[in-house]
């Protein structure tokens, strides 16, 4: 009841002070508010521009891969990403690939940083991070592990540049081979040491020949 009485009082006041019906009064108020909003928008200061996105510094282009040729396992360790001036290398099945473009994975702090600078064939085949598996020896692996290693090799061949091969080292067992000389008998040794004398033919003089012939001639004369 109080609300209805208040509304009736308001309508009577509108009619008394404006001479307009309540509907016309509220319509005029709405139009005036809209005009005020439009006019104030024309003269208002423009809104500030949105903040510019932060520009990240452009990464330096990677140098082209350098062919390394044949590299020993010890030399390959120098390319594990610890020196940013050197390329990041990794080997699979004796083939070395430049993985510098994936430093976030194989560089220091990456999830596969243990594989960098090594032939990690066995570790990749077994998906192992054990130190004893960080080797290129794949002997004793099962067919499923070899298939997994083959998939890794195809991935590296299609994505990275091959830059060399790992030099194979064959372990050599230390051992001395003694050379024995043939045995010689004492008789042979003494015979070799004894001086040899050559027999010279005896020379017969002409006088001795005549002396031998003389008795023969005398016997012939006596007969």
Automatic annotation (TrEMBL):
Which family does the UniProt entry place this protein in? Belongs to the cytochrome b5 family. MAPR subfamily.
Q: Which Gene3D superfamilies does UniProt cross-reference here?
A: Cytochrome b5-like heme/steroid binding domain
Instruction: Please list where the region (Disordered) is annotated.
Output: 46-67, 171-223
UniProt xrefs under InterPro entries = Cyt_B5-like_heme/steroid-bd, Cyt_B5-like_heme/steroid_sf, MAPR/NEUFC/NENF-like
GO annotations of cellular component type: endoplasmic reticulum; plasma membrane
Where is the protein found, in the record's own terms?
A: Cell membrane
What Gene Ontology molecular function terms does this protein carry?
steroid binding
The name under which this protein is listed is Cytochrome b5 heme-binding domain-containing protein
Indicate yes or no for the key word Thylakoid. Answer: no
Tell me how this protein sits in the membrane. Single-pass type II membrane protein
- Which domain of life, per UniProt? Eukaryota
Q: Which residues cross the membrane?
A: 20-45
Q: Where is the composition biased (Basic and acidic residues)?
A: 190-215
Native species: Miscanthus lutarioriparius
Pfam families named in the record: Cyt-b5
């Amino acid at each position: 009841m109080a609300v209805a009485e208040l509304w009736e009082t308001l309508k009577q006041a509108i009619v008394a002070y404006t001479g307009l019906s309540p509907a016309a009064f509220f319509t005029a108020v709405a139009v005036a508010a809209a005009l005020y909003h439009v006019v104030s928008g024309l003269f208002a200061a423009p809104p500030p521009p949105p903040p510019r996105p932060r520009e990240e510094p452009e990464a330096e282009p990677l140098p082209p891969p350098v062919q390394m040729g044949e590299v020993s396992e010890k030399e390959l360790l120098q390319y594990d990403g610890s020196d940013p001036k050197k390329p990041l290398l990794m080997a699979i099945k004796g083939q070395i690939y430049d993985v510098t473009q994936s430093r976030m994975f194989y560089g220091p702090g990456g999830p596969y940083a243990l594989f960098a600078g090594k032939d990690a064939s066995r570790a990749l085949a077994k998906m192992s991070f054990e130190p004893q598996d960080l080797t290129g020896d794949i002997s004793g692996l099962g067919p499923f592990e070899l298939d997994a290693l083959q998939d890794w090799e195809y991935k590296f061949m299609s994505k990275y540049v091959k830059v060399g091969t790992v030099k194979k080292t064959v372990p050599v067992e230390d051992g001395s081979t003694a050379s024995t000389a043939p045995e010689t008998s004492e008789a042979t040794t003494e015979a070799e040491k004894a001086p040899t004398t050559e027999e010279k033919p005896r020379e017969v003089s002409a006088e001795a020949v005549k002396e031998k012939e003389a008795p023969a001639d005398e016997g012939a004369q006596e007969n």
